[in-house]
Design brief:
Layout: H1 2-9, E1 19-20, E2 33-37, E3 44-49, E4 55-60, E5 65-66, E6 73-78, E7 86-92, E8 96-97, E9 101-103, H2 109-121, H3 130-133, E10 147-149, E11 163-164, E12 178-179, H4 180-196, H5 198-202, H6 217-231, E13 243-245, E14 263-264, H7 269-286, H8 291-310, H9 318-324, H10 340-354, H11 357-365, H12 380-389, H13 399-419, H14 440-458, H15 461-474, H16 499-503, H17 551-567
Parallel strand pairs: 10-14
Antiparallel strand pairs: 1-2, 2-6, 3-4, 3-7, 5-6, 7-8, 7-9, 10-11, 12-13, 13-14
Helix pairs in contact: 2-17, 4-6, 4-7, 4-12, 4-17, 6-7, 7-8, 7-10, 10-11, 10-12, 13-14, 14-15, 14-17, 15-17
């Protein structure tokens, strides 16, 4: 095998990009797949030690298969039978070697912690100190201690121009604004991760300022954003402002440089219900750690719910608002013309926390509505997950409803695993071209979460393996060859549409942030080398359509990666 090592020295580096795999690594006893792209004459492949000197596995390449989502041709290299820990490369004669990867019991541990740490870098009003942020340390961003009530949000008690304080919270994405609706689903993903795996998260440290207190880091990170959300509720009526924002996006500068006015804008039903859902979930989770904060959250949730009952469908329509009120607002709208799913989710969370049957009555009313994979505009599934989580403690009379919810989740998961073998990349992601869209990476992560719920409902490991396939997708087993998580893998996204990463003068982007991924809509008019659904990705900071980051994309990745870490022993991916 020394002859192979000599051959490797002559192979071009581009060969690494023809073999697509999870660049962060594999669990010893978990499935391991690499995908070889392009016309490949070889019939077999080899797994070598990283230095190329020793062959530890060889196998047959699968048949050539055209992808349904691009002109890419693939062949599968399955080396799941390799269980020995070590550092390896996949070698295909006539092609070359893959990027190096580890096989280790902690394969996803850095990704799991790093994706959660990504939220720390999005904190808005505090300095990021070097001992926590490393070379990405910076000063505080927008203080938001003098925010103006926009004309669209004005009333008799808070007329236009009233100054309020709304400090803290995460910057939403590559911009410097803060949005309740998108914080809603993001907070739900983080809080649900803790609720599902509390013992695991009790031991997960991410080196944030609060790491040495008695509260798990994932909850401390959520609390940072929660305290901001509480400032967005009008104490006079319980309504919730849709967002805290500039009138227009800031330029590509560091946070805190611009001094433009900041506004809270129109209250909306979606904002009130998302707020009520998050605050009620936070109330039950935080009760053992901070009872006064938990009590405040529950009270805030109840008053937001009461406001929504009085305004059951007050939608946020930014173009219409701008025709009536000034200054015009052109930042992210997060407008939603159907809030039935918000009612369903909020009712589920309120019921789970209070056990008040009036909330379950509302939830049950919406069981006839369709349910979809979660997005910021489709949140009913978050309520389904909560009801499933507490189902064992619910009365017998509710169990028929539980069965309906269970079957809907398992039906969706069953379709995913039924179609997976037909995928050219053997992932769940990409079974529909619609998966590749604005923020498609979060589609992969949320598919993974749903599959994990199916696994926990049935203990059928096929669902877990399918969820892991989407983790592989995000970390390199995809048609672009990129790891979409900044700072992780041999070919990570390097130029995200993320203002601090652009303006800080550091070559590497802020780590732990999930790029949106291929988006054939290409709404940004940037330069795309490839334009097919699964390849329409541009690793340029111009590309907000394919390479922005966002908290609602990071949050399901936090759930997926950490859940896999939490379940790895029970799933026998690693030895006990």
């Amino acid at each position: 095998m020394r002859s192979i090592a000599l051959m490797l020295l002559a192979l071009p580096a581009a060969a690494q990009q023809q073999i697509r795999l999870n660049q962060s690594g594999f669990y010893p006893l978990a499935p391991k797949i690499a995908v070889v792209t392009g016309k490949v004459p070889a019939k077999e492949f080899f797994v070598l030690t990283r230095n190329g000197k020793d062959t530890v596995f060889n196998g047959s390449l699968g048949p050539e298969q055209p992808s349904a989502n691009s002109s890419t041709l693939t062949r599968i290299a399955d080396f799941s039978a390799l269980t020995a820990k070590g550092e390896y490369v996949v070698y295909v004669p006539g092609v070359g070697t893959s990027y190096p990867f580890p096989v280790t019991a902690d394969a996803l541990k850095p990704v799991a912690a790093g994706s959660l740490k990504g939220f720390y870098y999005q904190r808005s009003d505090v300095p990021l100190e070097e001992k926590y942020a490393g070379k990405w340390h910076r000063g505080a961003g927008h203080p938001d201690n003098a925010v103006l009530v926009h004309t669209s949000a004005a009333d008799n008690k808070r007329p236009a121009g009233t100054v309020i304080a709304s400090p803290g919270g995460w910057y939403d994405a590559g911009d410097y604004n803060k949005y309740i609706v998108n914080s809603g689903i993001s907070m739900s993903s983080l809080l649900s991760a803790y609720e599902d795996f509390p013992e695991y998260f009790a031991g997960l440290g991410t080196n944030i300022p609060e790491s040495n207190d008695a509260i798990p880091d994932i909850l401390n990170e959520a609390i940072y954003n929660l305290r901001w959300m509480l400032t967005m509720q009008d104490p006079n009526d319980g309504g919730v402002y849709h967002k805290c924002t500039n009138a227009a996006f800031d330029g590509m500068v560091m946070p805190g440089v611009t001094k433009l006015p900041r506004y809270v804008v129109q209250k909306s039903t979606a904002a009130a219900l998302d707020f009520a859902a998050v605050a009620s979930q936070a109330a039950r989770i935080l009760s053992p750690f901070n009872q006064p904060l938990a009590d405040s959250c529950l009270k805030a949730a109840e008053t937001a719910w009461q406001w929504a009952e009085k305004h059951p469908a007050l939608l946020y329509d930014q173009p219409a608002m701008n025709k009536q009120y000034q200054p015009a607002i052109s930042t992210g709208a997060y407008g939603d013309n159907d809030v039935r799913d918000e009612w369903s989710w909020a009712a589920a969370e309120m019921f789970a926390t209070t056990k008040d049957k009036k909330y379950y009555t509302v939830f049950r009313r919406h069981l006839e509505d369709s349910v979809h994979l979660p997005t910021w505009r489709n949140v009913a599934m978050q309520g389904y997950y909560t009801i499933l989580r507490i189902s064992g403690a619910l009365p017998e009379v509710i169990q028929p409803d539980i069965m309906i919810i269970r079957e809907r989740v398992l039906r969706m998961a069953g379709e995913y695993i039924r179609k997976q073998p037909q995928s050219a990349f053997r992932t769940v992601m990409g079974q529909s071209r619609r998966d590749f869209s604005w923020g498609g990476s979060s589609v992969a992560a949320n598919q993974g979460i749903l599959l994990l719920y199916a696994y926990r409902l049935t203990k059928n490991k096929t669902y877990l393996d399918a969820a892991l396939s989407n983790m592989d997708y995000l970390l390199g087993r995809n048609a672009t060859g990129y790891s979409f998580l900044t700072g992780f893998g041999s070919k990570p996204a390097m130029h995200p549409h993320h203002r601090p990463s652009i303006a800080d003068g550091i070559a590497e982007p802020v780590p732990g942030l999930l790029s949106g991924g291929p988006n054939p809509g290409m709404q940004d008019s940037c330069r795309y080398e490839h334009t097919e659904p699964e390849t329409a990705f541009s690793d340029t900071d111009c590309s907000y359509a394919s390479n922005e980051i966002a908290i609602n994309w990071n949050a399901p990745l936090v759930y997926l990666a950490n859940a896999l870490e939490a379940l790895k022993k029970a799933a026998a991916y690693v030895e006990e």
